[in-house]
Design brief:
The protein is an alpha+beta fold. Helix content is about 25%, strand content about 20%. Strand 3 (about 60) and strand 4 (about 65-70) form a beta hairpin.
Length: about 90
């Protein structure tokens, strides 16, 4: 897939819109973007799902009218390398 793509949600049934956006976003490379023809209702449905699946890994930019650019960003580093087990859950009993 190219670094950029276009998805006109007006041509897709309302029930299918969120899953289409999520699937297309997942296929984007880091640094890629997806231009969407989207209305506020669709954005309200997709935004929380994106945040749940890819927290902090996307950005919205208003273009013109109801067109938005959804960009994919790299995942933030947690600061924990995991070598001491501090970031992992343990089943051991002390």
């Amino acid at each position: 897939m190219n670094a950029t793509a276009m998805l006109d949600l007006r041509q897709i049934a309302a029930a299918e819109r969120p899953s289409r956006v999520l699937a297309r976003f997942e296929a984007l490379p880091i640094g890629g973007w997806l231009d969407l023809e989207i209305d506020p209702q669709d954005l309200a449905a997709v935004g929380p799902q994106l945040e749940a699946l890819w927290p902090g890994q996307f950005d919205w930019q208003a273009l013109t009218g109801e067109r938005l650019r959804l960009s994919r960003k790299p995942a933030a580093k947690s600061g924990c390398c995991g070598c001491c087990g501090g970031g992992a859950k343990s089943n051991a009993v002390a």
